[in-house]
């Protein structure tokens, strides 16, 4: 008799534990589903990483390697929202390079322009490669 009561108590507590576990899992599932829909409504999609970020990093790496190959010093390279890159050079000037054009050609043009300006004794303020012809400001 006592054994049967103990066994019934164990089964009852086991059943209550299973019921508690099922309720907890259901609550967790419910919270996750609500959170997923909330995030989709708030952000539009579950993708939080800008797809352009990978391209910007690869172009940035290409810019750094081309500047190093051509022995042109730079202090800062920053990406702009219009798809161009702003490069500060140690001589005190700013160079704006377009990502839509061939970067190697722009760097070689920059090297030529910097050598000419050095020969002429002029100081560069801004050099912009986003247009058909480079725009130079002194």
Characterise this structure:
β2 (84-88) and β3 (94-98) form a beta hairpin. Strands 1-2-3-4-5 form a five-stranded mixed sheet, with helices on one face. The longest helix has 42 residues, at 2-43. It folds into two domains: 1-48; 52-137, 3-Layer(aba) Sandwich (Rossmann fold), CATH 3.40.50.11690. It contains three helices and five strands; from the N terminus they run ααβββαββ. The protein has 138 residues and is an alpha+beta fold.
Summarize the structure.
This protein is α+β, with helices and mostly antiparallel strands and 138 residues long. It has helices spanning 2-43, 52-69, 103-120; strands at 76-79, 84-88, 94-98, 126-128, 135-137. A hairpin with a 5-residue loop joins strand 2 and strand 3 (94-98).
Give the number of DSSP strands.
5
Give the mean pLDDT: 81
Structural class assignment: alpha+beta
The CATH architecture designation of the largest domain is 3-Layer(aba) Sandwich
In CATH terms, the superfamily of the largest domain is Cell division protein FtsQ/DivIB
Uncertain segments: 43-53
Radius of gyration: 32 Å
Taking the sheet with the most strands, its summary is: 5 strands, mixed
Span between termini: 103 Å
How much helicity do the residues have?
55-70%
Overall structural domain count: 2
Query: Largest beta sheet: what is the strand line-up?
Result: 1-2-3-4-5
Fold-level CATH name of the largest domain: Rossmann fold
Binned strand content: 5-15%
Helices, by number, come to: 3
Query: Outline, from the CA principal axes?
Result: rod-shaped
What string gives the helices and strands in order?
HHEEEHEE
CATH class of the largest domain: Alpha Beta
């Amino acid at each position: 008799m006592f054994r049967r009561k103990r066994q019934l108590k164990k089964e009852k507590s086991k059943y209550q534990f299973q019921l508690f576990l099922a309720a907890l899992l259901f609550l967790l599932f419910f919270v996750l589903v609500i959170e997923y829909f909330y995030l989709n409504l708030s952000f539009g999609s579950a993708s939080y990483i800008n797809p352009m970020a990978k391209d910007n990093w690869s172009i940035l790496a290409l810019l750094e390697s081309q500047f190093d190959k051509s022995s042109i010093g730079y202090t800062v390279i920053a990406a702009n929202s219009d798809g161009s890159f702003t490069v500060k050079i140690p001589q005190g000037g700013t160079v704006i390079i377009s990502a839509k054009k061939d970067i190697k050609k722009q760097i070689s043009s920059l090297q030529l322009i910097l050598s000419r300006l050095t020969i002429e004794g002029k100081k560069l303020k801004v050099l912009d490669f986003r247009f058909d012809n480079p725009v130079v400001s002194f």
